[in-house]
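Before the break, one more example. Copy the sequence into your notebook; we will annotate it together after we see the structure.
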Amino acid sequence: MQGSLALDLLLGLGLGYLSGTFGITGGVIAVPILGFLGFSQHLAQGTSLVMQLPIGVLALWQYARRSRLNSRLIAATAGGSAIASFIGARLAVHLPEEPMRKGFAILLAALATLTICGAFWRQATSPKLRWPSASAIGASGGFCSGLFGVGGATFTIPLFALFFGLSQTEAQGMGLAVVLPAIVIAIPTYTLAGFADWRVGLVLGVGAVCSVGFGVALAHKLPPRALRVALCIILYAGSLGLWFRA
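Here is what the structure looks like once it is written out:
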C-alpha cells in the first residue's frame, strides 16, 4: 500500500463506487482493507477519515439532487453528531490497539444486523417520530464515527427509514448528512495524535470522487431491499475478517 499510487487510486475508485451505492462514506470498507494491508487500527481509522471527507461531500450533493432531504432533520442531526464525534475521537486515540480492532468488528456485526432487520421489517407509511428526535440519532452516529472513524451513516440509515418513514435513498442521504460534521470534527483529533496518513487518504479520496456519482446513480435504480442485503453481507465479511485477524 505504501508508495503504490496506482493501487491507492484503484482502491479509491472501488470505495467511491460502493460509497455512492450504499450511501456511506466508505470507512466501513476502507478500515478493514487498510488493516489487512499493514496499517494499525488507529492509523487505518484516521486515514480513512481523510478519504471520507471528499466522498461524503460529493455523495451528499448527489443524493440531494436526486432525493428530497428534510432540512430540519439535517439541522437536528448535525448538531448532535458534531458534539458526540469529538467525544468519541478523543476516547479513540487513547485506547489500545486490540480492543479497538475487536470493538470495530463488533460494531460492523451490529451494523449488519441492524441493516438486515431494516430490510425485512415492515414499517408504517407515516413517520413515528418528530424531527427534534433526530438529534439523538445524530449523536449516536457521530459517536460511532469519532470512536471508530466510521459507522455513522451505516448506523443511522435504517433508523431514519424505520422511525421517520423515509425511503431507502432518502435515508442514505440523511445518513451522509449525519456523518459529515462528525468527520470534520474527528480528523484533527486523529491527525494531532499521529494516526492519519494524509498521502494515502488523499489519493484514496481522489480516486473515490471520480466514481461516487456512478454509485449514487446505481442506488436509485436498485430495489431498496437488495441494497440493504448487499451492504449487510459486506459488513459481516469485514467483521469476521477483523475479529480473526492475527
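The CA atoms of residues 106 and 239 lie 7 Å apart. The radius of gyration is 16 Å. Try to locate both features in your own notes.
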